[in-house]
Amino acid sequence: MLGAMIAQGREAEVYAWTGDAVLKLYRDGFGGHGAEAAALASLDGTGIAPRLLDTATIDGRLGLVLQRVDGVDMLAVLRHQPWRVVGLARTLADAALHIHRVPAPIDLPDLIDVLGDRIDSAGLDPRLRDFARRVLDTLPAGDRLCHGDLHPGNAVVTAEGTSIIDWPGATRGAPAADFARSLLLLRQAEPLPGTPLAFRMLLSVGRSTFADAFARAYRRRAPRPPADVDGWMVVHVAARLSEGITAERDRLVGILDSARRATASG
To answer: pTM (2 decimals)?
Structure first.
């Protein structure tokens, strides 16, 4: 039943499966299958994400059988059609708003707890760690579904619309927190290794346009303005440092320290 490998990432590999399905097979030591399964089950029938069809275990590894999504991710679309940057940013904002209307399953991790753990494991100077922790303590909990890694690479453009993939980081939290995480990724995330130089240059020029259009569309169409975005941005910067992306570390530490200094002087 296990077909050819279609894709692979840090946590899982994706294989062709029977019929119109794929198997996302998690690597040993990664436990995001539970959160991904819970999130996809809560979205069943919405069309915003692949359907969860079944679970499977292959050689002791846990896997999710998912609806196959035929399309290309937004990054690939932008690579070949950069003039669509504003329209695609608005599409991603619409997807985010759709997700944030969904009540989160009770068994998903609480986003506040997840961010606290990540801040503690980021290897920060104690002053920066304590600052981020103090900011986190001021932010509200929430009960909405949060993707945790919503960016163009996880948005597949199909003939029927846009499908959001890759849900192992799903949590229960405040929509503004997930919005802030997306803004951080859009503005600061380093391109994946192997990204062609020409596309890296295109990204450096177009990412601000995409991020600004995403933010405007989200704010304009949200039922209420996202609150505490600056605070959420601070804690997401600190938490992002736990991911060990060397090319981003100095820049993110600088952003965090600037926020700490501004708060102290204010």
So the answer is: 0.94
Do strands 61-67 and 52-58 pair parallel, antiparallel, or not at all (unpaired)?
antiparallel
pLDDT, residue 18, reads 87
The stretches in the chain having pLDDT less than 70 are 192-203, 205, 266
Tell me the C-alpha distance between 234 and 237, whole Å: 5
CA distance 61 to 57: 5
Cα separation, 26 vs 118, in Å, equals: 21
Which residue reads 């989200």 in tokens? 218
Q: How many angstroms from the chain centroid is the CA of residue 155? A: 10
Are 143 and 163 in contact by the 8 Å Cβ rule? The answer is no
CA dihedral over 119, 124, 125, 128, signed as positive or negative: negative
Q: Which residue has the tokens 């009960």?
A: 143
Q: Which two tokens stand for residue 43?
A: 């979205």
d(CA 221, CA 215): 10
Domains of the chain, each with CATH number or no CATH: 5-67 (3.30.200), 71-265 (3.90.1200.10)
Helix (H, G, I), strand (E, B) or coil at 84: helix
Question: What is the torsion angle, in degrees rounded to the nearest 10, for the CA atoms of residue 216, residue 50, residue 117 and residue 31?
Answer: -170
β 155-158/71-73 pair status: antiparallel
Nearest to 211 by CA among 186, 189, 181, 192: 186
CA separation for the pair 78, 152 (Å, rounded):
9
Q: How far apart (Å, rounded) are the C-alpha atoms in residues 112 and 142?
A: 9
User: Both ends of the chain: CA-CA distance in Å?
Assistant: 61
